[in-house]
Amino acid sequence: MDKTIASAAEAVSAIPDGATVMIGGFGGSGAPIELIHALIDHGAKDLTVVNNNAGNGHVGLAALIEQKRVRKLICSFPRSADPRVFTEAYLAGEIELELVPQGTLAERIRAGGAGIPAFYTATSYGTELAEGKHTEEFDGKHYVRERWLKADFALIKAELADPHGNLTYRMAARNFNPVMAMAATHTIVQATRVVELGGIDPEHVITPGIFVSKVVEVPNAAQEEELNRAEAVYP
């Protein structure tokens, strides 16, 4: 099945109001800027977004928040280089925040993709983040039970893709992208280059195409940090 799509706009066109959307990236590394901007243009609102951070400047995730499309943000690092958009929205009561330790966030997403409803971790025990959560003692140490995290859609960025959706990633841009691809019902990918079938060595495939719904080629993708240095604003 050929999963390639002609444009980012077409790729995100089925995302409805109220959807839960995972967005890959660690800061700007591996962030699918073009798909996020297409989602802004699409107009979906009341979104629950899962991301490592809360966006920077006025592009990408920050722009999605600034356009008041995000109802709730689940992230581990809301205070990044330039988080003014999220900070202002949060202080104004316009957005809900669920703060999750970074390793716990990654494991909750991985568990969602692996079909594991819950797991125990020592992280956050005895802190405000553990309030209201079930705890248990194992071998003399206390652990907090955390639930899996799944999404309706994932927007991720890959380096290479083939028409069946098999993916590779560029260095640190791999980050949250592979686990998010597994944890979403529909995974939408922007790839730097789409190659022909057989163009990716099977030994190099990180995300198998079974986890991918749509692929759009974006050969000259924007980089969040470069956009912010240029003081770009979207839209």
UniProtKB/TrEMBL annotation:
SUPFAM superfamilies in UniProt: NagB/RpiA/CoA transferase-like (SSF100950)
InterPro entries: 3-oxoacid_CoA-transf_A, CoA_trans_fam_I, CoA_transf_BS, NagB/RpiA_transferase-like
Taxonomic superkingdom: Bacteria
Any Pfam family the entry gives: CoA_trans
SMART domains recorded: CoA_trans
Keyword field: Transferase
Family: Belongs to the 3-oxoacid CoA-transferase subunit A family.
Protein name, UniProt field: 3-oxoacid CoA-transferase subunit A
Lineage: Bacteria, Pseudomonadati, Pseudomonadota, Alphaproteobacteria, Rhodobacterales
